[in-house]
Structures are given as structure tokens and as C-alpha cells.
Specification:
With 424 residues, this protein is α/β, with parallel strands linked by helices. The chain has twelve helices and 20 strands. It starts with a strand and ends with a strand. Bound molecules: guanosine-5'-diphosphate. The site of guanosine-5'-diphosphate has 24 residues, from helix 1 and strand 3. Guanosine-5'-diphosphate binds next to helix 1 and strand 3.
């Protein structure tokens, strides 16, 4: 059976934890889009890991982890992360990297940084991992597939062609040093050798695995609202984090996907720029930020404070719908136990009119939240193992959200550790 785990919102919903938990009962975990730009935090018996590029199954020794062709493959980041995981005591993970995956180049990262600098206050809040220039090149057809790194003539020719464009940008737009072809060629050849043991025809591997009825998890990065088509364009990422893209970016047949698990937090959090209707500021925000996640709401990749706010039913209903979610996992329920009452955004107000549907970005920027307030439960809930044993107001909170987002909430997470999970 193939299951997809995706974010219903802006990312950082806790997908890593859900994947790590479900990985324990899976054969294969696949990353299908994005790159080393996000972070998935997982906490299990080996310790705490902030994974960026590796699939969240790396801590389960029986799992084969696959980096699909849809991923932005930063080879250095990949090798570094494998070393880090192993140095924390995890047995050498089994990883296959698609020979079709395209390779993040040093100029992608450089241009991402220089472009954000150039944009100044209009910057996108990029993590500066090269993602936008990388996907730009992929679709402009000047990217390099991993397999092309093993053909010296092709590699040299492709690099020379790319550098014609990149060096013009570097020198004349950003006023930086150009990149030397020979140095880059040598670097990429070295990296290609180091990653060689992991390279595979993952399409073939996964097709066979699907036929054999293996349990496969497809792990998304970020969330619906960062999708280039259905998100808050242009404050989006450059590859689709939608479950609809999962079979493409992973390389499995569409029909094989039986479950789509959309992950959402019991409140909202958002890293990066863009409209965020229920955003909190001041002391209220600071309190929630401090209590959220496993160590406060700070970006796993950048350490930046995450923007936080109340649960947004309009955004999450839309987020689940565009994912085609068959069920929802609600994380961070334990975080809200300090509140007397909890505001929940049930609709937006736009130009004096009520809006129940998540609008396009120019309209969203003008929307104000309409809140209803639910009673809090004023106690810690970590350690509670069954949903039925949760305080009544906590159960009511979950039931209310479920009705609003129109998708069954089957998992409720009340702590960052793998085993802190209740099923409904
Ligand atoms: P991802 O990118 O969707 O995998 O999310 P992140 O890992 O970046 O962010 C989720 C944060 O919430 C991390 O700090 C997790 O450790 C934490 N987390 C996940 N589930 C829970 C939970 O139920 N309770 C608490 N307190 N933290 C959680």
C-alpha cells in the first residue's frame, strides 16, 4: 500500500514525526520534492534529528529510503546529513538516490543568496538553499541529472553552457566573481564519485515494490499553501508539495496511492513571507512560540522564529481539499493546554463580507480573521495515550476542527516523540 504524508498549511506541521512513526511499519520511505531547504524534526530512541534532505525513515533500520527524481539533490548536504545521522548512533541507513534526480549546483545556492540580497525588503524569505534557481533551471532545461555527472564529455559541455548564463548574471547583475569551469567540473566529478554507491534506478525499484504490495510512504515537504499553483503565489516554493505531485516526483503509479494523510498543527505556524491571516504578535505570539513544537517554534533549517497564530479553518479546509486528504493528523495538541480559551478562525472578512473559501493572494492580503472562541482545558495532556482519556474540552476542540475542515482527524499527536500519538 502506498500512503502519502503532506502538509495542509505552510509547512512545519509535524510531517517528520508522523513519517518517522509510520516508517517503523513501512518498507520504503520516499522524498518526492523540495530539497535541503526545509527541516523535519524527529525524536526517537536514537535522539533528536533535524532532517533536511534525507527521508524521515532513516532512523528505522528496516526501511529503504528513496530520494525521488522530483527532489533537488544537494550532494554535499546529502553526504553531510548521512554522516550526522550515523554519528548519532543510527545504523548506516539504506538509501537509494534516483539517477534522474537533478543536482543542486553551487551557482544555484550563490544566486539564491545574491538575489535575496538584491531584492532587499521585497525578498521572498528564501532559505537560501538554491531551490528557486534550481527548479528554474530544471524547467528551462539547463539542469543536470545525477546520471549526467558520470559522463565526462556531457558534464563538461553542460557545465560550460550553464556557466555562460550564470557567469553573466554573477558578474553583471550581482557584481561577483565568475565561476571557473575546471574547478566546478572537478568538484562535481568528486561529488559524483562520493554519492555513487547510493545511485539507482529508483523508478524500477519502486514499480516492483508497488507490484509486490510493499508498504511505501511518500513524504512531502512544506504544505499546500506553498504550492506554486494553489498556494499563496509568489510566496511559495518552487516544486509542488501536493499529494497530486507525489507519484510524479517519487516515480510510482498514481493508482497505487491509497491514503493521503494531511498534517496540520492545533494552531498555525509559518516560516517565511506572505499573508498569514491569523498571525499573532507581541506577548501572545511569544508565549505560543515558546511553548510550540519540541523546543519552541524556531525554523529547523534557519533557526528563525516562526510566525505563529491561531488555527485557521479556512486555510486548513482548503489545504486538506487541495491535498485530496483522506485523513488528517493533528499535531501539537499538548501545546495549547495553557490557555483559558482558544480562538479559532472560522471565516475571513473581506471588504465587509464574510468569506468561507480561501481566496487568491491579492484578496487574501486584505482578509481579516473572524474568530469563534472555544474553552481551553487548562492542563498538560502529554502522557495520555487514548483520545477518550483527553479532557472533555480538548476532545471538543478536535471535534470542532474536524467538522470545520471537513476531513476526519484520525491521529492526534500530544508530544514530539514518536510514541506520543492517539488514534481515533
Ligand atoms: P515538518 O517539517 O512538517 O516535519 O515539521 P517540523 O519538524 O519542522 O516542525 C514540527 C515541530 O513540532 C517539531 O519541533 C516537532 O518536534 C514538533 N512536534 C511534532 N508533533 C508534536 C506534538 O504533538 N507536540 C509537540 N509539543 N511538538 C510536536
Amino acid at each position: 500500500m502506498v500512503r502519502t504524508i503532506v502538509g495542509a498549511n505552510w509547512g512545519d506541521e509535524g510531517k517528520g514525526k508522523i513519517t518517522d512513526m509510520l516508517a517503523a511499519e513501512s518498507d520504503i520511505v520516499v522524498r518526492f520534492q523540495g530539497g535541503a531547504n526545509a527541516g523535519h524534526t524527529i525524536i526517537n530512541d536514537y535522539g533528536r534529528f533535524a532532517l533536511h534532505l534525507l527521508p524521515s525513515g532513516v532512523c528505522s533500520p528496516n526501511v529503504v529510503n528513496v530520494i525521488g527524481p522530483g527532489v533537488a539533490l544537494d550532494i554535499e548536504a546529502f553526504l553531510r546529513e548521512v554522516d550526522e545521522v550515523v554519528s548519532q548512533g543510527v545504523p548506516q541507513p539504506r538509501i537509494l538516490v534516483s539517477e534522474r534526480a537533478q543536482v543542486m549546483m553551487p551557482y544555484h545556492i550563490a544566486i539564491d543568496c545574491y538575489e535575496e540580497e538584491r531584492l532587499g525588503k521585497n525578498s521572498f524569505g528564501s532559505t537560501k538553499s538554491g531551490i528557486a534557481p534550481f527548479y528554474g533551471d530544471k524547467y528551462q532545461k539547463i539542469g543536470l541529472q545525477l546520471c549526467q555527472l558520470y559522463d565526462p564529455d556531457v558534464l563538461r559541455e553542460k557545465l560550460a553552457h550553464a556557466l555562460d548564463i550564470k557567469n553573466a548574471l554573477l558578474e553583471h547583475l550581482y557584481h561577483k566573481e565568475p565561476i571557473d569551469l575546471e574547478t566546478l567540473y572537478q568538484k562535481m566529478t568528486d561529488l559524483a564519485e562520493r554519492i555513487r554507491p547510493y545511485v539507482a534506478d529508483t523508478d524500477d525499484y519502486l514499480m516492483k515494490a508497488v507490484k509486490e504490495g510493499k508498504n511505501i510512504l511518500l513524504e512531502g515537504q512544506l504544505g499546500t499553501l506553498r504550492d506554486p499553483d494553489h498556494g499563496i503565489y509568489p510566496m511559495v516554493t518552487s516544486s509542488s508539495p501536493l499529494a497530486g505531485f507525489a507519484p510524479v516526483g517519487a516515480g510510482v503509479p498514481v493508482w497505487s496511492i491509497k491514503e493521503i494523510i494531511a498534517v496540520t498543527k492545533a494552531y498555525s505556524s509559518c516560516v517565511g513571507a506572505g499573508p498569514f491571516t491569523t498571525e499573532l504578535f507581541g506577548d501572545e505570539a511569544e508565549e505560543l512560540r515558546k511553548r510550540g513544537g519540541d523546543r519552541g517554534e524556531y525554523g529547523a533549517k534557519t533557526g528563525r522564529p516562526r510566525r505563529v497564530g491561531w488555527f485557521d479553518c479556512v486555510a486548513t479546509r482548503y489545504g486538506c481539499q487541495m491535498q485530496g486528504a483522506t485523513q488528517v493528523a493533528l499535531t501539537n495538541m499538548d501545546v495549547l493546554g495553557y490557555l483559558d480559551e482558544i480562538p479559532v478562525c472560522i471565516a475571513y472578512e473581506l471588504d465587509g463580507k464574510r468569506l468561507d473559501r480561501f481566496p487568491v493572494t491579492p484578496k487574501l492580503e486584505k482578509c481579516k480573521p473572524i474568530y469563534t472562541t472555544l474553552p481551553g482545558w487548562k492542563c498538560g495532556t502529554r502522557g495520555i495515550k487514548r483520545f477518550e482519556d483527553m479532557p472533555e474540552n480538548a476532545r471538543r476542540y478536535v471535534e470542532f476542527l474536524e467538522e470545520q475542515i471537513d476531513c476526519p482527524i484520525r491521529m492526534v499527536s500530544n508530544g514530539p516523540r514518536r510514541e506520543e500519538m492517539m488514534f481515533r
